[in-house]
């Protein structure tokens, strides 16, 4: 299949490009390096410098004899996105091309505005580019489990049937996002659902939980193929952060009571899910929503896992409870359904001791490069 990956330079984007290329798909990766620029602007480096997308693709081709085409440009620009769609004529599009950080979206008015404009603007352009140049193509869109928030009932897989005053109907499961970033994903879902109804698009919206991990089948132990690993408060996800904190001898930053529970998955499983979604397209006029995670953990559970991995590797890992800079429930019910991807064939990789220790060993190779000042800055959710 010809698969167009929008946001192909990102933490999940680049590993997805390699995964689908290895599986025999024809892949084009597009990015405008927004995340790299934002990281520089607010002083958030990743654990190691990643080669640029052209260099990555050359390295991949030299190793595997498989090509990943690369285009650099802003998908908010209609001239650019239409030229990409015309040239590549995609059969599937994976859309990661969004500002992905909740804290970034809560920093100040300018970062909130950028998040809103970029995320909604790109989704809008992607929808219109599909309608104009590739109406049969299947769009696989990266959403987030955070769209649902933490309601006091079981979270269904995208849809809920409601009986009201003796009549029944099927609706999108209620959304209640906890940051502006997460809210842009809710708005994306509404935009997609509107155009699925109006124009009969084919869309899969993946509600993904926080991802952890660094190496995949395709990276092997070649560090030049690794995605960038953020450990800073703004772009790092919690488990990756805790692992780096442990390696640096920095106390693990548990926010508030630490009972915040989310659905987590390894990067390898995120790739499996994306491949499954692409290779099992939906019908025209269907919006399929899949809850994309493997296991639920509280922040305290994760801190405990990291502390024990540290002990096994001779590190002294301390856990610290900080006043929560975010506005979120710190103790809550959490029971989301997640059978859709298992039914499609997902083989989950769980968070085992081996997985933790293997990742910790890679991080320890870079421990001298960790800039501890980047770990905590306390971006506040409150005005
Ligand atoms: N947390 C801590 N200490 C830290 C960092 C985070 O206690 O040092 C807590 C947060 O308060 C939160 C939980 O850990 O309760 C998860 O935080 P996170 O930063 O790993 O995840 P989040 O901001 O929700 O965003 C990440 C990705 C985002 C994706 C989302 C999936 O950056 O792109 O959409 O995970 S989900 O959380 O399911 O919405």
Automatic annotation (TrEMBL):
<dbReference type="InterPro" id="IPR036291">
    <property type="entry name" value="NAD(P)-bd_dom_sf"/>
</dbReference>
<dbReference type="Pfam" id="PF01370">
    <property type="entry name" value="Epimerase"/>
</dbReference>
<comment type="similarity">
    <text>Belongs to the NAD(P)-dependent epimerase/dehydratase family.</text>
</comment>
<dbReference type="InterPro" id="IPR001509">
    <property type="entry name" value="Epimerase_deHydtase"/>
</dbReference>
<comment type="pathway">
    <text>Bacterial outer membrane biogenesis; LPS O-antigen biosynthesis.</text>
</comment>
<protein>
    <submittedName>
        <fullName>NAD-dependent epimerase/dehydratase family protein</fullName>
    </submittedName>
</protein>
<feature type="domain" description="NAD-dependent epimerase/dehydratase">
    <location>
        <begin position="3"/>
        <end position="289"/>
    </location>
</feature>
